Amino acid sequence: MSEIHILSNPTRLVMRTPAGDTPLPALWLRALSPDPSQRDPLTGQRLINPHLFPEDLALTAARWDGAQLHLAFSDGFAGHFDAAELLAGTVLSEGCPASRPWAANIAYTPVYQWPDLAQDAVLYKALKDFIELGFLLVHNTPTQPDSILSIARRFGFVRETNFGAYFEVYSRPKAADAIDLSYQPVALGPHTDNPYRTPVPGIQLLQCLQNETSGGLSSLVDSLAVAAQVRQEDPEGFALLSRIPLRFEHRDATTQLVAIKPMIELNGSGEMMGVHYSPRLDNIPLMSEDNTRRYHRARKRMGQLFDDDAYALRFRLEPGQMMVFDNNRVLHGRTSFNPAEGHRQLQGCYIDRDGPRSLYRVLHRQLNGTPA
Fold first, then answer.
1. Which long-range contacts (C-beta less than 8 Å, at least 24 apart) are formed by 66-73?
2. Which residues are 71's β-sheet partners?
3. By three-state DSSP, how is residue 123 classified?
4. How far is residue 95's CA from residue 115's CA, in Å, rounded to a whole number?
């Protein structure tokens, strides 16, 4: 249990926990003022620039006023502060559930029926599953030519690319039309879509419209679980994969996209977000012989684990079924198929990564009455 205590000589605030006291600096407190003279009540945006506060700003007085704190500062400002909000601000959080890495033996597979997702309470649960696990399976979806766009907009905003607002995935009869290997009936190993973009499309939806073939099984692999194993076996190799940039490129008659980024993606707090993994598209930089071999060893091990049955979920998508997955975190692939057996047609589109997280926070506030 955390509590705020006022100390004197000099006046200061501390957050008291069973582990001890943590000082709450005057500069930190001052920037959190909710006073209408400091922060717009409607938008929550500041009306002042805290970057310009004097470096030696100090707390000059502090007292409790009911459940609130009244604080005065050396720059002349004084106002009320909500203690609960100050305590909440001590935790650097997005307000979303933590990721839960998984392997092929996952005990719970998040499967939802599309009509049920019209209910906010069901959508809220689905978003929680998605944020934790990085994927959802949605069944009983409409299969009109552009239905995928309506489905995508339930989760976020569609991101259009050179492939269009949505794209078709089936075997092209002419090699010249197959500008990506996904348009050919070959097996596709686990990979990130479009790692040559900045930013990479955050979330992908893949919907089955027709499937008359015995092959073409879809697969999903959680990069967080695989990378945790690599990190345990080879910490130095993990560090190289998260630090050494790769060059990714896609080109066709009208497009040439290039991005340079490490294979393992870390966020601003140094936590792993996912990977940029596509052996068809990456090139490592020139390094020493030793570093090249160390990097190759770590990358090879990661690739072996991505292909390991212990980590991969494999399943057949039937018409009207869809997989929604975090394209940075969850790799996808498929087995080969024979177009002579019949038609296999999927549609795909992308939405931004922050859309479902924003919607989760809004629904949490609406359904629970408190911020996420």
1. 69/4, 69/6, 69/13, 71/13, 71/29, 73/26, 73/29, 73/30
2. 62, 79
3. helix
4. 27
Tell me: the pLDDT tens digits for 16-50?
A: 999 999 999 999 999 999 999 999 999 999 999 99
Strand 135-139 relative to strand 111-113: parallel, antiparallel, unpaired? parallel
pLDDT tens-digit readout, 122-140: 999 999 999 999 999 999 9
Burial class (CB in 10 A: 0-12, 13-18, 19+), 82: middle
Task: Using the structure block, give the residue that is written with the tokens 């707390």.
Answer: 59
- Paired tokens of 237: 């190799």
The answer to whether the predicted template modeling score (pTM) of the entire model surpasses 0.85 is: yes
The closest alpha carbon to 276, from 220, 334, 164, 201, belongs to: 201
Neighbours of 328 (CB within 10 A): 24
Decide: 146 and 345 in contact? Cβ < 8 Å: no
Residue 58 DSSP label? -
Cα–Cα distance measured from residue 221 to residue 275, given in angstroms and rounded to the nearest whole number: 11
Q: At what angle do helices 289-306 and 235-243 cross, to 10 degrees?
A: 100
